[in-house]
C-alpha cells in the first residue's frame, strides 16, 4: 500500500509563505501525476496543483497561479508545494495525492487519484 506523508503546514500571517512536502513510500516516477488538493471547513475538496512524471508538466488552479509553485524531487520521492503571498482564504487542510495512470477523469478531479495523504493544516491569519 502506497503511503503519502505531508508536512510543512502551520500558522502564518497573511502575506507569508509556507512550503509543504509530501513524501511517498515508493518512487514518485511510478505515478503519472502527483497533486495537491485542499479542503476548507464546510467546503468540498478542491484542486490546487499537479505535476506530471513526464516532463514535469505543471497545472494550477486559477486562484493560486503566480503564488504557488509545485515541484518534485524523484530522488527523494518527494513533491513540494511552495506557497507565497498567502491569504486567509488559503486556510484549509492540504492533501497530497498520487495518480498511477491517467484515465478519463481529469487530474484536476480528486476522483482521479489513487492514493491520499492524511493532510496538513494550513492556517493563515489576517
Give your account of this protein's structure.
- The protein is globular and about 40 Å long.
- 0% of the residues lie in helices and 48% in strands.
- A hairpin with a 5-residue loop joins β5 (46-52) and β6 (58-60).
- The model has no long low-confidence stretch (mean pLDDT 94).
- By secondary structure, it is mostly beta strands.
- Strands 2, 4, 5, 6, 9, 10 and 11 form a 7-stranded mixed β-sheet that branches. Strands 1-3-8-7 form a 4-stranded antiparallel β-sheet, with no helix packed on it.
- The protein has strands at residues 4-7, 10-13, 18-24, 33-39, 46-52, 58-60, 68-73, 78-83, 92-99, 115-116, 120-125.
- The protein is built from no helices and 11 strands.
The helical percent reads: under 10%
Sheet with most strands? 7 strands, mixed
Which of globular, elongated, flat, extended, rod-shaped describes the shape? globular
Q: Assign the structural class, choosing from mainly alpha, mainly beta, alpha/beta, alpha+beta, or little secondary structure.
A: mainly beta
Low confidence ranges: none
- The helix tally amounts to 0
Radius of gyration: 13 Å
Mean pLDDT score, rounded?
94
Report the portion of residues in β strands: over 45%
Please trace the helix and strand order, writing H or E for each element.
EEEEEEEEEEE
What quaternary form is this? single chain
Number of strands: 11
- What gap, in angstroms, lies between the N and C termini? 40 Å
